[in-house]
Specification:
Blueprint (H helix, E strand, L loop, with lengths): L1 H26 L6 H12 L2 H14 L7 H28 L5 H29 L4 H11 L6 H8 L4 H28 L1
Helix pairs in contact: 1-2, 1-6, 4-7, 5-6, 5-8, 6-8, 7-8
């Protein structure tokens, strides 16, 4: 199970925080030129998400006493806050939804469906077989790859000047489509 968590965090968390946010910062700007690349990079290293990532990694290396009542209270509070992020993200995505004609959404939905819900799990399956992963890790990797993009993608898009309404609609569309693809991918993993 530890390996599955590691695969999940390295496969989703690190790319989100180190790649998606700078891309959103850059493409969310009205004018994209060479100066805006440097401005985006500078802004990224000063962003709360990057600072939180660095602080989280730094604190993970500290061997703080787990039985200290103050630290235990802080950890519990942070755990509650962490668990509430999913609900708040869902509210934000719902609030950002806009009426967008389906004809405008279909090309983006089709592209995301093919890339995110079909190609990614198949590439993960090929990679798992190529590297000879044990059966459990193989299945976890493929099913993890079959998951739709997190709702946080819409929040990041809106926060950094991209089209949050479009991102919200696409996130919801991928969630609905994944209701069909995840069981199919699961059946594929147990049959191989």
């Amino acid at each position: 199970m530890r390996d599955a968590l590691l695969i999940s965090e390295l496969g989703a968390g690190v790319p989100l925080f180190l790649l998606a946010i700078p891309f959103a910062m850059y493409f969310g700007r009205e004018h994209t030129d060479s100066r805006s690349v440097l401005a985006s990079v500078s802004e990224f290293f000063r962003s709360p998400m990057f600072i939180a990532l660095v602080l989280g990694i730094a604190f993970s290396f500290l061997k703080l006493p787990q039985q200290n009542i103050v630290l235990k209270t802080i950890y519990n509070l942070l755990g509650i806050m962490g668990n509430s992020i999913e609900i708040f993200t869902a509210f934000v995505v719902g609030l950002m939804l806009q009426k967008i004609p389906i004809r405008q959404l279909l090309p983006a939905i089709a592209a995301l469906f093919l890339i995110n819900l079909i190609a990614e799990p198949l590439i993960a399956l090929g990679g798992a077989h190529l590297f000879g992963l044990p059966p459990l890790e193989d299945k976890v990797l493929v099913i993890e790859a079959a998951m739709p993009a997190g709702a946080i993608a819409a929040v990041v898009a809106a926060r950094y000047g991209c089209n949050g309404g479009l991102a919200s609609a696409l996130v919801i569309a991928m969630y609905v489509l994944s209701l069909g693809t995840i069981p199919l991918i699961y059946l594929l993993t147990i049959s191989i």
